[in-house]
């Protein structure tokens, strides 16, 4: 990352001198770095296999953003820890896995839900070709997970059936509450999901004052 340079190495564990990172891992922590995973709300350090904000401290941390003390203070704390804004965890073998960006987490009644986790579950369904999950405003919960899903040409499942598939694999607060079938998922030239655009379109497509449920609309 620009504010620090490399944090992990995928080929070769610096502590063992050999090995390749696991599938979906971003690698092992490089030497001479301190890395911790914290609860973004409390700052408390978290144990292994528990997702939290990735923080790093070393001689490679930038001095700060040019002429922007406010943003610098938000990014580097008084103890020299650089807060990356990434949610991830480290396993018992030292592999680090990224989960999502903090700003993209969905806040459901105080619980944090990672869109990437729900997208991963949706993509395991044999009829789902692509998917994107965003947080939608809700008076009772604050936000609820909403999904846009691209089905393959052989698919026969309804929106309700896809929602039930997700519900059977997650805790109650992670359930997808709104699902829309779409022709394609809007993405940037680099392949990044355009979540803001998707959220705007989904909010437009939900009927005013209607109960939260399934809405069939095409995202154009």
Automatic annotation (TrEMBL):
MF-aspect GO terms: ligase activity
Domain annotation AMP-binding enzyme C-terminal: ranges: 117-192
Top-rank taxon, per record: Eukaryota
InterPro entries named among the record's database cross-references: AMP-bd_C, AMP-bd_C_sf, AMP-dep_synth/lig_dom, ANL_N_sf
Claim: Ligase is one of the keywords in the record: yes
Occurrences of domain AMP-dependent synthetase/ligase (ranges): 1-66
Keywords, alphabetical: Ligase
UniProt KW Ligase keyword: yes
Entry similarity comment: Belongs to the ATP-dependent AMP-binding enzyme family.
The protein's name: 4-coumarate--CoA ligase
């Amino acid at each position: 990352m620009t504010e620090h340079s490399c944090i992990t190495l995928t080929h070769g564990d610096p502590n063992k001198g050999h090995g390749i990172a696991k599938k979906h891992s971003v690698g092992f922590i490089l030497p001479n770095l301190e890395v911790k995973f914290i609860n973004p709300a409390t700052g408390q350090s978290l144990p292994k296999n528990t997702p939290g904000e990735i923080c790093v401290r070393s001689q490679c941390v930038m001095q700060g953003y040019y002429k922007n003390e406010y943003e610098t203070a938000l990014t580097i704390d008084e103890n020299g820890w650089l807060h990356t804004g990434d949610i991830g965890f480290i396993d018992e073998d030292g592999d680090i896995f990224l989960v999502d960006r903090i700003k993209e987490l969905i806040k459901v009644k105080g619980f944090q839900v990672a869109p990437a986790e729900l997208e991963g579950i949706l993509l395991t369904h044999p009829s789902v070709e692509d998917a994107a999950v965003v947080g939608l405003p809700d008076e009772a919960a604050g936000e609820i997970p909403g999904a846009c899903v691209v089905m393959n040409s052989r698919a026969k499942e309804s929106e309700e059936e896809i929602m039930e598939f997700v519900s059977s694999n997650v805790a109650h607060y992670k359930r997808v509450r709104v699902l829309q079938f779409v022709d394609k998922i809007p993405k940037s030239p680099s392949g990044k999901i355009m979540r803001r655009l998707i959220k705007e379109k989904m909010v437009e497509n939900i009927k005013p004052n209607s109960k939260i449920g399934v809405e069939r609309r095409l995202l154009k």
